[in-house]
């Protein structure tokens, strides 16, 4: 009997070697960390979705993730309150901002990556230094300047403000992608007769497209959810000018916070971001991977 037990234990030990057991432990710990990370980021979203499906009274009486008596009443109230108008305003401001940033930063990043000129490094450091300044610190001087120019209470002024504030980050990010592209492509294009602008448009734009997609996604998310600048510039103009982040604030009035309506508006506002990310996910992952390998 003892001989059989020793034989079985020896056979099991031969099949499960220490390197294999160590690899199983590492894999288990890795999957556990993945599960915790996914739960950490996914739970708040599920909780907001759960709140949006409750009645106002159930918000304070139940901690169940799945409501026992789900209701779409908060979505009906949110749709009746003008959220479609705020969604359109947000989409309009965000689309113009992202397009403007890409139009400005693509040739600028190309120039900083390829041209050698006096003060280039100092100018890059100055751009980086501007990025270090929090927009909250300069919001009042910016409001004063925009009011002098007559650009407050208008989406055009807000778009110009967003473009100016988000160019430094986008410029540095896109310049890094241009640095990963071999300069031999430029030389080959110049030999074929292309000037600088044609080289950028017909030769370099395609390989740098993942970087442009990363810039677009980051700026789309930042602009879509921005509140402080939008509230400062647009709030005197009335609710018709509101963006989505300002519209959600409407449900937090002086008498009470309508949590179910806030949650429903947040869910409606998340959908376009997810759709935009899914549409550019292929470029986003490719851009991050190439940046990690070549950067």
Automatic annotation (TrEMBL):
<comment type="similarity">
    <text>Belongs to the binding-protein-dependent transport system permease family. MalFG subfamily.</text>
</comment>
<feature type="transmembrane region" description="Helical">
    <location>
        <begin position="29"/>
        <end position="49"/>
    </location>
</feature>
<keyword id="KW-1003">Cell membrane</keyword>
<feature type="transmembrane region" description="Helical">
    <location>
        <begin position="123"/>
        <end position="143"/>
    </location>
</feature>
<keyword id="KW-0762">Sugar transport</keyword>
<dbReference type="InterPro" id="IPR050901">
    <property type="entry name" value="BP-dep_ABC_trans_perm"/>
</dbReference>
<feature type="transmembrane region" description="Helical">
    <location>
        <begin position="86"/>
        <end position="111"/>
    </location>
</feature>
<feature type="transmembrane region" description="Helical">
    <location>
        <begin position="203"/>
        <end position="224"/>
    </location>
</feature>
<keyword id="KW-0813">Transport</keyword>
<keyword id="KW-0812">Transmembrane</keyword>
<feature type="transmembrane region" description="Helical">
    <location>
        <begin position="259"/>
        <end position="280"/>
    </location>
</feature>
<feature type="transmembrane region" description="Helical">
    <location>
        <begin position="155"/>
        <end position="174"/>
    </location>
</feature>
<dbReference type="Pfam" id="PF00528">
    <property type="entry name" value="BPD_transp_1"/>
</dbReference>
<protein>
    <submittedName>
        <fullName>ABC transporter permease</fullName>
    </submittedName>
</protein>
<dbReference type="GO" id="GO:0005886">
    <property type="term" value="C:plasma membrane"/>
</dbReference>
<dbReference type="InterPro" id="IPR035906">
    <property type="entry name" value="MetI-like_sf"/>
</dbReference>
<feature type="domain" description="ABC transmembrane type-1">
    <location>
        <begin position="87"/>
        <end position="280"/>
    </location>
</feature>
<keyword id="KW-1133">Transmembrane helix</keyword>
<keyword id="KW-0472">Membrane</keyword>
<dbReference type="GO" id="GO:0055085">
    <property type="term" value="P:transmembrane transport"/>
</dbReference>
<dbReference type="InterPro" id="IPR000515">
    <property type="entry name" value="MetI-like"/>
</dbReference>
């Amino acid at each position: 009997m003892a001989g059989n037990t020793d034989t079985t234990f020896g056979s099991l030990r031969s099949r499960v070697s220490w390197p294999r057991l160590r690899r199983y432990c590492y894999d288990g710990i890795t999957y556990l960390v993945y599960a915790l990370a996914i739960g950490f980021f996914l739970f708040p979203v599920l909780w907001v979705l759960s709140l949006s499906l409750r009645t106002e009274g159930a918000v304070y009486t139940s901690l169940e993730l799945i409501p026992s008596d789900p209701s779409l009443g908060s979505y009906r109230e949110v749709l009746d309150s003008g959220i479609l108008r705020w969604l359109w305003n947000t989409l309009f401001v965000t689309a113009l901002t992202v397009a403007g940033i890409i139009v400005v930063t693509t040739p600028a990043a190309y120039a900083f990556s390829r041209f050698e000129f006096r003060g280039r490094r100092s100018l890059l450091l100055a751009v980086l230094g501007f990025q270090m300044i929090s927009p909250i610190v300069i919001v009042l001087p910016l409001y004063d300047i925009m009011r002098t120019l007559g650009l407050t209470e208008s989406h055009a002024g807000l778009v110009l403000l967003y473009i100016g504030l988000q160019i430094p980050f986008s410029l540095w990010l896109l310049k890094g992608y241009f640095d990963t592209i071999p300069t031999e492509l430029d030389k080959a294009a110049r030999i074929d007769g292309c000037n600088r602008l044609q080289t950028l448009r017909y030769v370099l734009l395609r390989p740098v497209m993942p970087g442009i997609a990363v810039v677009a996604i980051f700026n789309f998310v930042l602009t879509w959810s921005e509140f402080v600048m939008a509230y400062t510039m647009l709030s005197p103009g009335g609710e018709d000018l509101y963006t989505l982040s300002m519209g959600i604030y409407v449900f937090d009035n002086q008498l009470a916070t309508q949590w179910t309506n806030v949650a429903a508006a947040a869910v409606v506002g998340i959908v376009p971001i997810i759709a935009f990310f899914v549409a550019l996910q292929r470029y986003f992952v490719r851009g991050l991977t190439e940046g990690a390998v070549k950067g």
